[in-house]
Amino acid sequence: PPFVKGESAYFISVNRNKKSMTLNLKKEKSVDIVHRLIKQADVLIENFRPGTMEKLSLSYDEVKEINPKIIYCSISGFGQDGPYRLLPGMDQVLQGMGGLMSITGEPDGPPIKVGVAVADIAGGMFAAYGIVVALFNRETGGKGQMIDLSLLDCQVAWLTYRAGSFFASGEIPKPLGSGHPVIVPYQAFKAKDVYVNVAAGNDQLWQKFCKALGLENIMNEQRFATNAMRVKNSSSNN
Prior knowledge:
The chain has 238 residues and is of the alpha/beta class. It is 42% helix and 13% strand. The longest helix is centred in the middle third of the chain and has 22 residues, at 118-139.
């Protein structure tokens, strides 16, 4: 839910502008249809659990026999090998295992999931990147290839500078609400009746921000003069 004229809004949101065909891949006739499609396809994408495509006679080795130039992208929760390979990859679980929930939410609060399925979305984006690169490689003299894409890998990649900070300092990142770990002020502040979103991303914007609010008296105070000092004294800046 919700449904619009009998169609799921969720389904439509991720399947708009797509042409679809329903096939029962456990039936030989359906597999024959897929084989015919593979002969003229550039890309095959599948997101079954590892081992399922082999049971359906649609493994990469079998598919490349039909079309050696095909780009075969397998998307799974935890990759095609490893101890978790056969576990289902749900967005909720992946956000937790990938570290995102541990840095989302209010300080000292419970782990919070991002409001949309970012682990699933990240998987789709990284799959698209990988497929485009594989197609480019094929067109420049290469061959078809298989892409083994793990949703957990994609989620960890999205930790970006928070992961970099951990490896540089050894300090475990913590949730900061709407705040930023290395830029201040850069968060939503509660005013009398609404929240005000502030993004003073550098010292010049900090000065403009102070002037707009008539706070010239603190603009050049030593403890707030630079972003590094504002981060250090962020509790004084809230």
